[in-house]
Amino acid sequence: MLFGRTKKNPVNLPTKEVVDWQTVTCGYCSTGCSIDVGLDIDGKPISCRGNAEADVNRGKLCLKGIFEYEIFRSPGRGTRVLERDHIRSPWQQTNWDSALDRLYSEIRRIQKKYGPDSFAIISTGQMLNEEFYTLGKLTRGLIGTNNYDGNTTLCMASAVSGYKRSFGSDGPPGCYEDFEHTDYLIAWGSNMPEQHPVMYWRLKEAHEKRGFPIIAVDPRVTMLAQNASLHLPINPGTDVPLMNAMMHVIFAEGLEDKEYIEKNCTGLEELKAEVAKWTPDRASQITGIHPDTIVTVARAFARAKAAMQVWTMGINQSTHGSDGVVGINNLALITGNVGKPGGTPLSITGQCNAMGTREWGSTSGLPNFRYLENEEHRKEVAAFWGIDEEFLPRKRGLTQTDIYKAMEAGEIKGLWLIATNPLTSLPDTDRVRRAMEQLEFCCVQDCYEDAESTQYAHLYLPAGTWAEKHGVMTNTERRVNLVKPIIDPPGDAKPDLWVFNRLAERFNAEREREGKPPLTFPETAPEVFDEMKQLSKGRLSDSTGMDHELIEKHRGIQWPYPAELREKGIPPKKGGVRLYEKPASFCHPDGRAKLIPLPWEDNNEHPDEEYPFWLNTGRLVEHWHGRSKTGKVANNNKFSPIPFIEINPDAARDLGIRHGEYVRLVSRRGDAVAMAMPTGRVPYNMVFMPFHFHNATNRLTLGLLDPHSRQPAYKQQAVRIEKMPDQEEAARLCMEMRKF
Amino acid sequence: MFERRDNEPEYAVLTGKATKEKTQWGADIELAPEGSPLRDEPFIVNGDEPGHNLRNPNRYKQHGFYFNADNCIGCHACETACAEKNGTASHIAFRSVGIVECGTYPAYRRLNISMACNHCEDPVCLKGCPTRAYTKFAEYGAVLQDPDICFGCGYCTWVCPYNAPQLDPVAGHVSKCNMCVDRLEVGLKPACVAACLGNALDFGVIEEIPENRVQAELSIPGFPDPSITHPNIRFQQLKTLEPEVKRVDSVPVKYRLDEDKGRYVAEADHDKAPPVEWNLKKLLTSHEMAHVAFTLSAQAVMGAFALLIFSGWFSIAPLAQVADSGIFAPLLWVMVALAAFGLFKLNMHLGRPHRFYRGFYNLKWSPVSREIAGVSAFFAGLVGSAFFSLFDNAFTSVLGNLSAALALAGAAYGGYYMYKLYRIPARPYWNHWHTGASFLGTALSLGSLLIGVAALIGGVADAALIGALSGIAFLGLLLEAAGIIVQYRQQHQASSEAAVSWLFMTTTYGRTFQLRLGLLGIAVLLSGGLASTAPLAGDTALSSVLLPAFLLLALVALAQSLLGRALFFAVVVPTTMPGAYFWKNPGFIEHAREVGLADWPQIGVAYEQHHKFDVKELLKTIRETTWEEKWDQFKRIFTG
After folding, report:
1. Chosen domain end from B523, B545, B570
2. Minimal Cα–Cα distance from A241 to chain B, Å?
3. Cβ neighbours of A12 in B, within 8 Å
């Protein structure tokens, strides 16, 4: 030691007595990181670290993953089965048997009285593939309501819809390895450092090696926008005109990949005719992007050997969300940037298993990207499950957003919410409340007893969460990875798969009473996986070569991985699996991708004299969705414990709003209290507000729906900002709304 | 030992690069050359000393963090990984990310600054700590702090410019970044570095520039003046920033590029100027009131004692008459009580008040230790003087005088270091001679007024005494006033956090400050008036004018001292790292405490609190420490 200390003391650092590390896949975002959870001698999770061998995260984790071990026993976890007669009555504890009997009989009572589709089921992107498949089978095969959807409508529906329209099927064609090969990357409304930090690190690693241009299209100066080679500070909701103008330039200058288009696409002439109208000058007037910039970006994109586009909610959550995705696909197709290393339109998914519900949930169709509208698909699935094909509807039912509108219209009387919390997550909270007040019966199945939607529930079923359960999840790059139970759910809580199977028993009994054979509902996740993967045979997402053991061994396997490969002894690749690599291998019947013209009309609510500010919403790195998890992890929550807005300092000054003062935001839907944080990140006429907080942002949002995907536009609406003279009262109001 | 996996990713492994010999400050990077006795003593981490085969070859070289500010995305992975590894309470963080920003939309840039301890070449924390809880090890040059030694005075948090030591208001002690020396011992970079998702943080032998990086700058905007401590951190920051960058937390500090200095310097940000208010309650109920009580009482008593003793010894009229009067002994006991009150308040504000005896441990370096030693000597002498004044014989008189001499020596030594300990470069507002002027002024004004009030009550006051005491008080008050004026002129537009202190003085506490100035003015006028007129007026005016006026003076002077001293502690703005929107934002922390958000553990804000005097722990320590250890401990007070 230095400084003449004559006695050297031993050094004692804090340590954690981990005796066992168990590897599972993270339950937060769709990056799909592998986490080693450290258990102490009593089997209590006390630590997390990134798994060093997993190709996805290579030892890294974001701040949510680092503290994910704290979520198992956090306050608010549901440990008892609860029921009540009326939503204003106090909860009574009950047992699983009687609760499931009640759920069964309420479903049938409502269906009998108001029709089979009057009972709606809304699931999630948070469960495991085996659970999605089982719930889908239960709903489509036994319950028989067509009003069944996932909350993925709020985040990924536009990507799904856009992929289907362009390529004939859902399924992101790229992978993270594409970062290593790309020569030009456009991020459309995607703030990776905040939303997908570990994926951003993969991008950063690739970028440090090769230094390709990164173009960020975002109305806000996010960290990605700031660090990008070029930031296009676009006017909210005007991405499609920008894409059209880029295509205008590409065609006008003959930069398109004629050979690729010739071999792979249809609809070129219609597309050309539409984009001919979109000169950069015209688009500039709408988007606020300099016409020369549009030309520059279009040229560089088209000339790049491999050009990649990623996008997230900036595209999906808008009235032209599906069109935006199609526009991205159009750009990729006309430049030949699909299915090649570094050239891909990669939709970055939101929830940990949004992909899983898209593949297996049967919400918008049937398992493994099958369509209800397709007779052959209906027949295949009906035969596989052993049900009458006639029992399946011939077109998809309502989306989550439309289910709520049908509740308002009195067409839906009963609701089963599974691992989702619409009271916080849907736009226009007031309408959500009204809709839920009108239900005759509502069951909430969630791992949190204090999820706000339980306010309107008659039945609460405590579910397991994350690594209390067993099964697989699929990430953004289509990697199927394992979650296994490393701790039991608390109290009476049960894994969702168990709940579905017990409910299925009740419906199967009914079938048997009618003299029909029961449907199979395997009890364990590996068994379910073995059943469901048979439905993927020969399809785009063929996973017949996988099983739980192999998945765990490889820390996740990207689909497709058909049985044929495995039988030939070809192990799954570490990464870099892409779709549509072969010519004309798209999923439309002719094998070609469609180039779709995108006429554009501005239908957003714009700021005006009464409501002079854009309200833009989005995510913070420290929070997960409605904060039911991260709001209780102090080392996540403390970075933004209360709702706030980013407001331009000049606007704040003109309104007389001081740094850190509470303000009242008012929209045509309602009002909200938030703390004002002036920053030059946002333009003068815009405020940014994170969506995570209950009773805050979504009291204001408009949520116009995309015509194709029915996904709400959360990011474009108008508000006004009022000073709150009584700051103490404002603080009290804000605090009361934060109670768990 | 830290468990190293077989497959640790490359980014987590120390590169072992060590090509330089000197730091940019000119210090040796090799801290203990081959053969140095420093290498002989075992470096024991968590109970074991790793085998030689595991030893890092660069173990005895100064290591440090490397921060590429261009790359930091503010994702909090570093701070969270640190919190996870160290199990820190949520209101504490060894590493934090602060934010500064510049420009306006869309020409806007934000700079996230991830900062922990810089394991400085000149660790002011170590030198300041009175308990010797800090050690700068030859191993890695790590500055480590031992919470088991710390008694929670928080002085290290005052002197550190980077906010590295964390005083935990709940646990009552300080803890800080430990460089993850357990990871270093097995060849791994610290947890925060391994967790970084922006490729911004790195770690290695100091001055080594990591691969793909070009700079090894000593500072970036928002980082305090590195010349204070020679921190072992190097930066890269290539992207162009505006000449002015601002903080996003509540503190009205901005940073301006000083072309001459070649770095950004702090200034007051008048856009964030708070409204002009009283804030009396906030001022007088703060946790720092213990320091107000201690410094005021100690200085008043020291001043009064010195005046009494000197005038007694040298028969300086008219003060000598007080020393000779019957009130001398009672006055001494009043002074004992006052000083004891101050010491009690000071001790009980510690996080671990029962560890008070450790306050002397760092006489070698710490002005706090010296202050405590001096004040303790003064107090012992004062008690001796008071005790022997109860007797009246030659023997006790000698002992009384010896006690008084001890007290005076203690007062001189302790008083000097009481001033010196506030000369903290990281607290520019205090780091000015006005602090000394204020302390000396207080000793003169409150000391003389204390004597006067006692004389008045004891019935021994006359016009001459009133005049003389008022004169001394006048000098003290004038000194204090002069200090304020000079300090204001030098600091209120300074390129340092001192300007921000003056901003708070004139806004947040603006009304209170005006009141204080008014009171000071009145006190100066009153004391000056009394000093010049009392001897002329004579004893005839004593009870009708002089005594009431003197009492008024005493009250006014006391009030202005109280307000002045409370302001002294309230307005100081350290050169700390910038905070973020909520985390480490002083405005939000205060707000959360005021409105009760701090009641919820997930908010990450804890209340200030007092800690009990744990007699059991004290007895246990006494019992469990052998006499030999006690003797060694005593020796190390002087040897270090």
Report:
1. B570
2. 20
3. 45-47, 146, 148
Residue type present at position A699: R
The domain of A508 spans 81-153+362-464+488-515
Domain that holds residue B369: 280-570
Could you tell me if residue A608 is inside a domain?
Answer: no
Q: Give domain status of residue B546, yes or no.
A: yes
Q: What is the pLDDT of residues A195-231, one digit of tens each?
A: 999 999 999 999 999 999 999 999 999 999 999 999 9
Which residues 392-431 of B are in CB contact (within 8 Å) with A? none
Asked if pLDDT for residue A171 goes beyond 70, the answer is yes
Residue B590 forms part of a structural domain: no
Nearest-Cα residue of chain B relative to residue A9: B44
- Considering the domain architecture, whether residues B238 and B285 belong to the same structural domain is answered as no
Query: A488: which DSSP letter?
Result: P
Closest CA to A677 of B224, B101, B282: B101
**Looking at the structure, do residues B130 and B81 belong to the same domain, yes or no?**
yes
Residue of B nearest to A677 (CA): B581
Tens-digit pLDDT profile for residues B200-257: 999 999 999 999 999 999 999 999 999 999 999 999 999 999 999 999 999 999 999 9
Interface of A with B in 669-688 (CB under 8 A): 677, 679-684
Judgement on whether residues A87 and A52 belong to the same structural domain of the protein: no
Q: Are B305 and B411 in contact (CB under 8 A)?
A: yes
CA-to-CA distance for A734 and B595, rounded, in angstroms?
10
User: What is the number of domains present in chain B?
Assistant: 2
Q: Which of B223, B242, B261 is the last residue of a domain?
A: B242
Q: What is the ipTM of this complex?
A: 0.95
Same domain, B213 and B308: no
Chain A residues 548-587 with a CB less than 8 Å from chain B: none
Kindly state whether residues B493 and B356 are assigned to the same domain: yes
Check if B166 contacts A (Cβ < 8 Å): no
A735 touches chain B (CB under 8 A): yes
**CB-based contacts of A365, cutoff 8 Å, min separation 6:** A371, A372, A373, A377, A396
**Can you tell me whether residue A164 is helix, strand or coil?**
helix
CATH number, residue B319 = 1.20.1630
Alpha-carbon distance A595 to A275, whole Å? 11
Do A64 and A140 belong to one domain?
Answer: no
Q: Dig out the tokens for B295 from the structure.
A: 């410094």
For residue B639, pLDDT beyond 70: yes
Q: What is the pLDDT of residues B112-165, one digit of tens each?
A: 999 999 999 999 999 999 999 999 999 999 999 999 999 999 999 999 999 999
Closest chain A residue to B111, measured at CA:
A223
CA angle B364, B366, B369 (to 5 degrees): 90
Choose from B168, B180, B588, B600 for mutation: most chain A CBs within 10 A.
Answer: B600
Residue A535 falls inside a structural domain: no
Residue B324 pLDDT level (bands cut at 50, 70, 90): confident
Distance from CA of A501 to the nearest CA of B (A): 36
pTM of the model: 0.96
Q: What beta strand segments (E) does A569-643 contain?
A: 593-594, 613-618
**Looking at chain B, which residue has its C-alpha nearest residue A60?**
B195
| Residue B139 near residue B553, CB atoms below 8 Å | no
What average pLDDT does the structure give for chain A?
96
Same domain, A34 and A89: no
